[in-house]
Amino acid sequence: MRLAVFVSEYREPEMLERLKAEKLGIVLVQNGVYHAALKKDGNVSPVLSKDVEYYALSEDLQSRGFSDSDVVDSKIKVINYDGLVDLIFNDYEKTIWL
Amino acid sequence: MRLAVFVSEYREPEMLERLKAEKLGIVLVQNGVYHAALKKDGNVSPVLSKDVEYYALSEDLQSRGFSDSDVVDSKIKVINYDGLVDLIFNDYEKTIWL
Amino acid sequence: MAIKKIAFIVEKLPYKSETSRLALTHAIASQTVEIHLEDGDNVEPVLAFVGDGVLNCLKNQKALDIYGVSSLEAHIKNALLLDLRVLVCKEDLEGFGLTEDSIVMDAEEIGGEVTTQVVPYEEIQQDLESADHLMFF
Amino acid sequence: MAIKKIAFIVEKLPYKSETSRLALTHAIASQTVEIHLEDGDNVEPVLAFVGDGVLNCLKNQKALDIYGVSSLEAHIKNALLLDLRVLVCKEDLEGFGLTEDSIVMDAEEIGGEVTTQVVPYEEIQQDLESADHLMFF
Amino acid sequence: MGKITIGCFSSLVGSMSLDFAIKFSDAAVKKGHEVDLWLSGNGTMLGKKGQSKFRDYSYLMDTVMELINSGKFKITNCEACAKARGIGREDTVEGFGVASMDWYLASAFSTDRILHIGGE
Amino acid sequence: MGKITIGCFSSLVGSMSLDFAIKFSDAAVKKGHEVDLWLSGNGTMLGKKGQSKFRDYSYLMDTVMELINSGKFKITNCEACAKARGIGREDTVEGFGVASMDWYLASAFSTDRILHIGGE
């Protein structure tokens, strides 16, 4: 399956380690964008340690005081709501909100 | 100060490590009672590792399927709402709800 | 004529929010969904408890006596009575030192015939794959 | 004649719930509490940001432009404008790799005179001790 | 006998924090204490008229009314929080106060204990 | 063009999950997709009449009305969840549907994508 997992909190969701999918995308939204924009004690978030696609919602970064270029790893694609709609309809079949 | 800290969630509150008080009591309520009643992978919760007073709310244990005698450590006093009222008025001056 | 399979996955604790209660009530609503659909079409729900969510299944929840609110235990019994497939993650149950004796395994006293299935996470993952839609609570 | 000191400690993130917003609006309400009290009586608030709560203080929050809801940044500026004591935990700020440059330190552009104080947690602990009441958000 | 001020903030309906606040208030009043209960954020929904008594949802109004009638219990909704949600005075259960946020601080001024239930 | 069914469950007002659901719906409808939005738990408060437009509180009704008028957007409150909170049909904004929980599953049956926003 092609599965998009929304991470909406700034802590590592327990389920994330377990979920498997042919194509897996992690979409950082709401407080999930802190994973994309901050290091803690110098370390990037463990949420970013998987070999999957990463996206962060631009509107939620900016609301919280970050700019799109503040993402800590270039593998994270910054997208807006428009891009998110396309992503869900074109690139993934199922979604999970954590 | 004499400080009663309410723990209402089943995860370790970050602040707990930091709070200092002459007399410190940890009151496990709502989902906080899981710290009192469960071990995870055989270990008691790190919330129970402090040298302070511990209380767990009987009504919240029982709502979740536990009996008062299910507490994993005898240092935890099981109290009901009546006892909690007395505790707050008689034994502590300030409270924090985490 | 089609059957759409929806997986309701519960990983939240029972009483902090309404989340897991709403999982149960929505899964049970599959019993009446036919009236909105064409002949022969239907929805097939599967309920899976994972992570902390397995604690929804504990026996002897006194929420109704104490707080006047129906227990998750009662909701799970309803689901079994209505022949829903109810899965509980074996690894997570064991992680809490719990066994089948600790949880709601059947609804015999109200006439239920199916039982809860304690299964390895791998089986739940297969249900996620085969479901048409996922709802995480 | 008495002054009661209330410590408002914010450890939640800004936009997931209303929690930190309500901390700010209630702390600011101390400006009008006198009308309910005897002459000479008053409430003295202190606002402290700790843990993840320090992220409420980041500059350039665009919540108003994007979601139509006032930013926590704007609320903190209001608090400074009204001469509230605003403390930010130094260790937590540094843990995120942030400095005074990253956060709201003053409300000069709206006429504020006091500034945010970045202090070691130990100082915040002292405020918890000297406060008459604690409110954790 | 003492006085306690409880604040229930940003409480989810269904979170059991309102249930906690009411059960605690009931126990305190029965012991002869006075209780001020301040509802803010989503907690203001407790004051909405016409709530239904469903089994899947804790129904607190009977106990609240008993408490109000005891004369030792004041319950007050945050005016702005309620209005934002479309709950004006005419939509608020009789016996509930409606006030601005300084009410909570004034109550805190003259109380023996504060139990501020924040969280989410 | 496709259809997406969004469920917003147990959402705190003030949690930004409703904001997310409405902004996403708006973007989807503008691209020509159809959206069904199901509100359950505290999410049903979005349908309450008479909400005020305060700056400290996101006000979504203008966008919701535009979406309803687009003809490509259905928004439906869970009847039981709303009633429990004292929000009956007469108290619900015009244009909102009110239905039992099987509505959500029926919408899920015939949709291309589900975005179920659970959490707390």
Structure in words:
In chain A, helix 2 links the parallel strand 3 and strand 4 (76-79). Chain A has a 5-stranded parallel β-sheet. Chain A contains 3 helices and 5 strands. Chain A has helices spanning 33-37, 58-63, 81-91, and strands at residues 2-7, 23-28, 53-57, 76-79, 94-97. Chain A is α/β, with parallel strands linked by helices. Chain A has a single domain (2-12, 20-97), classed as Hypothetical Protein Ychn, Chain: A, CATH 3.40.1260.10. Chain C is an alpha/beta fold. In chain C, 30% of the residues lie in helices and 20% in strands. The radius of gyration of chain C is 15 Å and the shape is globular. Chain E has helices at 17-30, 61-69, 79-84, 102-109, and strands at residues 3-8, 34-39, 73-78, 97-99, 113-117. A 5-stranded parallel β-sheet of chain E has the order 4-3-2-1-5, with helices on both faces. In chain E, helix 2 (61-69) links the parallel strand 2 (34-39) and strand 3. Chains in contact: A-C, A-D, A-F, B-C, B-D, B-E, C-E, C-F, D-E, D-F, E-F. The C-F interface holds C 4, 6, 12, 16-19, 22-23, 25-26, 29-33, 35-37, 41, 43, 45, 133-137 and F 7, 9-10, 40-42, 80-81, 100-106, 108-109, 111, 114, 116, 118-120.
